[in-house]
Amino acid sequence: MAYGRAKKYIISRTLHPYIDIVKNRFPIFNIYMLKLFYKMPTALLERFAIQKIWECRGFAAWLLFPLSLLFWAIASMRRLSFRWGFRKTEYLPVPVVVVGNVRVGGTGKTPIVIALVQALRAAGWKPGVISRGYGARFIGVRSVSGQESANEVGDEPLLIAQRTQIPLWIGKDRVAAGHALCAAHPEVNIIISDDGLQHYRLGRDIELVVFDQRLGGNGFLLPAGPLRESLHRRRDATLINQNASISSQQRETQLAQAARQCVDAPTFSVQLQTGLAWHLTDPLEHCALSTFATQKVWAAAGIGAPERFFDTLRQHGIQPTVQAFPDHFVYLETTFLDIDAQVILITEKDAVKCRAVLPSVTASRVWVVPVDAVLEPGFIDFVLQKLKAISA
Fold this sequence. Notes:
alpha/beta
């Protein structure tokens, strides 16, 4: 409670003058989102187009840099409150692997979580997953079977549950979700936390930090940059979600840049592999993406990095009209009603929401583009060796 009051006091005394200055002199930035400061939702930042300044250290980034110092102070205070014992970290009865990021927005965590679950299961482990359940309507913690709606449990947990068919529990309190999962499924001997890198109350045995090809942008903390924490924060490994279309030289350059961010942790590459598209109304009906190259296509994505999805379609010869929605976008019956296209392509994350709301006349044109994360064999061996040492 004392920490919360101190945080609010610091914000009220130091943040609002900057808000007034920037709002009055530079209305384009509309810094209303800075009032939310530490818990800024990515969708809100996207709405104000602030992500455009995050890739370079231009004038706007330096203008906001004093606020980044304030963000650093608040985040450091929170982190140190756990390190010094003012707030307690609680460990679960089984090892915990956290898959998260220090950059806001989508970096491809969900496919990596799914691939890690499959790799651990193949190695003889019995994994479970915990997640926050962003956007879900519930109180406390609850299980996810894959039969619920995205409104009930969140789009990412629903997708993970449907793809993996393993025990999955959600809740804002990941510690409580983890305990509930262990109690309900005593056979589970390892838990993967989908995100939660900054949820310090959850004890973890392995931390995996995920980036995409943008890496850390300009390297500044929010709001001048895209980072929740320093690029050099402690971790066990760094995963770079790389575009399959880049050259081997570009791939090595990205890996080298990431390796310099945390010299004490290894860096591994992840490739997103596109599968056959499947029909929204009949998941057993498949076709190659190249089939749509000669058709009039509308592509929509409500994910953290929609351009990555659109680029994938272009690499398959498709020239779509694109529509980028905010991450975790809530689809309605009328969302695609007036779209003039033969085919509508969406992501799996969008599909778990669209299947429940789109009328049949619209859904008949919708195809889903699945992706699988391909993990390096060396990375899987690294995780297994870590777990072996933990269990010894």
